[in-house]
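Recall from the previous chapter that SMILES is a line notation for molecules. Here it describes fe (ii) ion.
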Amino acid sequence: MREYLIEDLKPGMITAAAVKTQRGQLIIQPDVVLTTALISRIDFYGIKSVQIKDIETDEPPAAAPAAESPADASYSQKVKSSQAFQNYQADFETRTNSLKTIFNDFINSGGTVNKDALLRETASLIGSQKTTIEFFDMLHNMRQDDDSTYAHSLNVALISRMIGIWLKFPEKDLDTLTLAGLLHDIGKTKIPDEILNKQTRLTDEEFAAIRQHPRYGYDILRNQPLDSRIKKAALMHHERCDGSGYPLGLTLDDIDDYALIIAIADVYDAMTAARSYREPLCPFQVIAEFEKDGLQKYKPKYILTFLEHIATTYQNNRVVLSDGQKAKIVLLNRNHLSKPLVQLDNGEGIDLDKSPLYIKSLI
Ligand SMILES: [Fe+2]
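With both inputs in hand, we obtain:
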């Protein structure tokens, strides 16, 4: 076993100990094979180093069981058993397959991307939820089923459109933003599946190839009759305002606004994705993570709008606190959205901002 800095981690390495945030939140269990997505996730949480197994001498990895609290399961169960969710799930699957066909058709034929066909794929999914809470309930519970680039692209398109609505973008711009979300990862189609889905250690060249997908995406789209913001979103969605992103290391003023929105949707989708190696994060845990370094990495106006709407969506929801007590959210704290005022079932109020307790799950 040996400690590796985040920049030295490679897909295929195996965790020797649990990876936790400074606050002790479990991110990855021991004995898990790292993937590119997992390394990004560790990076996202600002974790500097990870204990890695020495493959030659340590035991082989075992699949880690999913850790899901009963309260999460019951909330998730409620959503999943609803007719609305089952309809959404069936529709989502159809749309994901269509998206795959549209992408491959236009890349292989060298023809023009069919914007209308792309937008049609999102239209029914957008219209199927009446409220924001329904939208996020659908989104959070779909994640277990399909982890493909196409499913991710569809999610990012829908989340980005929602952010555009919150930012009061005109309808025409919402369509452009949705297209930018759908196409942001199209460069991944240039990366062989055996690299994208590789379960064992990636070589330095393979790892570098994956990080080229924004450039590949831009190359695919550059001569298409598309709004330039869509092309820039493909190129710049991994850039971060503090210059810590890739491929160009741009800072706030040089990153296109649409790319800044896609970046938030992209990370939110990755963070809330249910995985076999960790429990799904509840929205307030996601907010807490964004509150740590979100203002440096993302455009403040966009990230604040996004977090405020997510928190507002779940206002009045019943929750489980970190000590197991059940409570209801009664008042949001605009300066610390992950720490609202809650009321316990016995009537006692707790200001979570002045308490070590935090929201662990929704009920
Ligand atoms: Fe990407």
